[in-house]
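Q: Entry one of two.
A:
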Amino acid sequence: MKIALVGDITKDSIIKLDNKEAHLSCKLNSTQCEICFNYANKIQVDQLSHSIGGNAANASIALKRLGEDPILVSQIGIDVDSKYLLEELKKADIKTKNIVQSENEQSNNSLIINYKGEKTVFSFHENREYQLPKADADVTYLTSMGKGWLKVYEKFLQGKIIYQPGTRQISRGAKYSKNILAKSKILILNKEEAKKFLGSKQNDIKELLHELLDFGVSEVVITEGKNGAYASDGKEFLKSSIWHQAARIESTGAGDAFASTYSYMRMTGKDITTALKAATINSGKVIQHTGAHKGLLKKNELAILQKRIKIKVSRI
């Protein structure tokens, strides 16, 4: 199976804040919280690490660990960070021949604050004139891109489409992506993204699944962090539990691990229940480490944990 992943890649710099250097301020009876630290101060950082990031890169590395040979299609600049990104991809054994380097462009960067296991992301995306090469693939995985993304996506709407929209795609709304959605086999996003994508205040997951399926998507997956994940093909509506024993260290890349593992399972003929369980385990392993890749499982490792770890899947 040839899988092409189309999207931006970035350099992630992850800092872990000392618990004494910041605090959370949450609204009464709400899950909306703000991270607070003293203005104009020098803040002590417990840990600093760098890695390649971005949905497309994270998903590519996850798929490589699962035994696939993904085709990463992306565009970067010609700068110090782009050299770093190419070196990291080569270390992960990801082919770089479909990555375009453009003069006078910077590489994307994200500063990620890890505080008590949750991430806050400061993201810089370079405005690009995309000149991406087409890739011969059975499956095309479309994910986060910058300005001009729709025109790029339209070049890749062949074969089986997996759609994991990024911030810019979600902010434009589902109607703007209607042609992509109508051709997508699988759409994956989290609950807050789903609501924003639809322009909805609906909190009922089943209703959100119905609304997204109405765009013609074959299958929709909605993740909800500590509440688990949901999936539907219009016939079955299923919910999976989380991996309760997974110690949460840092959550960067957990969503990408879930999305890519779920997609891999479905594209290789596994049923929705099996895909939900496998995706939950792989993403659960990622949050036990700092960064998006250290916890990613190889195919045989995932198979072993699938037998050992109980993930409950039920109908909703």
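Q: Entry two of two.
A:
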Amino acid sequence: MRQAIHIFRKDLRAQAIQIAITLIAVILFAVISVKHALAPSEISSRIPDILEPALIVAWWLLTVRVVQSEALSGDRQFWCTRPYSWKSLLAAKALFILAFVNLPMLIADTVILHTYGFELWPLTPGLLCRQLLLTTVLILPIASLAAVTTGMAQLLTTTFPLAVLLLASSGVIIGVDIAWPWGPLNWIRSAISVLAATAATVTVILWQYKERKTVRSRILVGVAFILVISTSWIVPWTWAFGIQSKLSHEHIAASDFKVSFDLSRKWLARTLPMPLGRVDMEIPQAVTAVPRGLDYVPEGLAISLHAEDGTTWRSKRGEFAQVNERAGILSMNTSLDGPLYQKIKSQTVTLRATLYLTLIGHHHETSIPIQKQPSRVPGAGVCSAQQDDRSHLNIYSIYCSSAFRSPPEFISAIFGNSRSEGIKRPGSYSPFPADLQISPVIPCFSDSHSGEKLSDAIVVSTEPIAFIKRDFELSGIRLSDLEAMPPAFF
């Protein structure tokens, strides 16, 4: 341990300037976040977003410099002639990261949360989970790359193609959001990727400090990168929904729900020929026999068609993309190939499907006085209800913020006799106390109202309590009877 402290002091002197830059970035981030907490409606809410990339870059530069101060790639470095124990060297680097990356951010998080009005002790698991995520997702990968390269130039040459591949796989380069389309279930795919990346980066770092087998470690880095990218694509959505179902707070039998063709809106059922031979199909659904006190949100739909002549078709689209609910109308949406549609459209077909539902309940209402002081709201974090001081009209706004993650609750507001539509779908169903976010406070709900004079407003929250799938069958459907004229511009 004495040797580790000696190396730590040496790094402290050598990296003094970079340490100062990193601490200044953290302090600026904390100060501006506190300013935003005191005035949530101000435009200053955009400023922390500008600082976040700078803060990450400062952490990365500090990590690279401290790791490469005793370069692990090669055998001609001066430090190799010193009687260093690899365990002491690794402990010194870990202590340095904890002291100048994790600890300052932990202090900043505590100050920011206190300013927002959160109670700190109940948030202890979230504070620790957040530091763990920052370390495993942001620090360990760059530390492993620094461990297998000899300098900043080689590091940049290595990371640039990896960054391009990562952005391409996520759809950023082509401007399409294709990597994370699962909404509140994205946390499962993210968790798997984080576990795979953490296992690989920890193995690389231990190998390099213990044996300095650079070629082997570089191969592992490449394999791990491919594994992390592919994991986000090979995990099926139905498997993720099954995991979420196991985490349900309550068990509710799927047989309690009945799914049928929505006869009251059968005018919405249609098959629509589209360009390139595709035919879009939409059929409204009705979910009945829902237990009292519960509501539901459709998450996904698996569809197959069975024709009289034995032809069977199963949709290749993801389950999460084949169901929607607009204006309270639930409908299935899918596409068929033109030749298949022409073959079966005059036959009587049977549609078999599985509907995936999130059940919500545990209704809570919390009264918020019209004042700038925040109030704690179960399920939503802290909320403040304010009147617009710059107007003589009765204009009121509610701002709610959550600690470390988007809450799984569905949130809405009541202003007098007016009720907002609220959140149709929360940010995440994750059971973990923190998500990977640079800011410790996440805006989760806001709403405004103008009208009668008010003394308070009400925040309403309901939480997901069960995740079920319901198999159903619709028979006697003739697709040609549903055929609509294609849009004129086609």
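A: Comment on entry two: The first helix runs from residue 2 to 14. The two ends are 74 Å apart (CA to CA).
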